[in-house]
DNA sequence: AGCCGTGAGTTAGAACTTCTAACGAACACG
DNA sequence: CGTGTTCGTTAGAAGTTCTAACTCACGGCT
């Protein structure tokens, strides 16, 4: 007994078509990138003519925003699942890489080049907070703070609005940021193809950066 | 006396118009991103009608490729200049950040989301080799290799096609990669606005990452 | 059971885009 | 002073997003 897919028949049909639209949208994005996404092409694939899609999404941007939200959501879910399964910082890091490699364009939808005017909706900022909380948990669990905080760590401790009540010590704040920025650095360059033809194995560089963050 | 702008009058005029096209193209990219670049709009700004631009660029992609090449070139020039002026690894890092902040969309043109099909022309890979050489120089000059190489460092030493005859020791190879990936990690997240509303100062995080790479 | 309003899908069309084709005119060169 | 290359033009094809107006069928209510 799956979830009863609550709602009126109309609502259920509507949700179903929305999902089908998004399915073809993902296919297009995976093969040609988000900028090449064409509503007309999607409509043709589904079998209805052009403007019909505007019953389901106000415009192209709203569809893309929805896809970005779904991408964020799937990343947050995976990280939360792994964390609940007892994964440490390195487990989360590997989960992140698997998620990214599974669909590079999905990664770029979240962490890639932003459109200058675009402002993320409130939902996504809430999801990033969820992700940050998982990382902060893992960073706090890592090791007790022993050394006196560095200047940057005290700065982070002074401006911890982004940690949202999380009781992580200054060193954990720093490590969470390192986790995010360093892994993103390796990952985004790899996915963008900047390591192509360089000879070395990106996975080993990634693993080494993980060690650097977790403290060997 | 500046360079005489060699060539026939036709060639000089042609080069001049090409530059004007690129100028307006950069303006559009800076304000709306590369995906919003419109050849028609550029033509209108210059004062000629649409298809005239196709005398100067075969198509939209060729114009963008040209802009990417210019962006790469300007970054390489800046880093080489700073290196010749005696800048160390930290000097190069700050130059990189200044270059990125001066025009975020230019940075994304080089290091941002790639179009799945796109393959960089041979020119740009030569320019990346130039950039890598400058960084490797600075990494080698840093400090003598004392400790035995880590597993990753020996791996990099075994696959040093990307270093192109550069006599950098394994530790310098590792540091060059850290320079690239870690600084790109912080920088790209900052430019993409992912730090917005988080409270802390990205410049301090960047400076701290520099210290991590240079070895305090 | 039957009405009937809401919402889905249609076509037409406006305003864009890139890019090709054919034409005229201006310019540099022999 | 011709002459040919090249530049810029207009026309138009094929694509895009998105609006407007119309039909029609489905689902809820009496």
Automatic annotation (TrEMBL), chains A, B:
Entry protein name: TetR/AcrR family transcriptional regulator
Organism encoding this protein: Streptomyces musisoli
Positions of the DNA-binding region: 38-57
Coiled coil: none
Ranges where the HTH tetR-type domain occurs: 15-75
Protein keywords: DNA-binding, Transcription, Transcription regulation
Domain of life: Bacteria
Keyword set includes Iron-sulfur: no
Pfam families per the UniProt record, alphabetical: TetR_C_33, TetR_N
Native organism taxonomy: Bacteria, Bacillati, Actinomycetota, Actinomycetes, Kitasatosporales
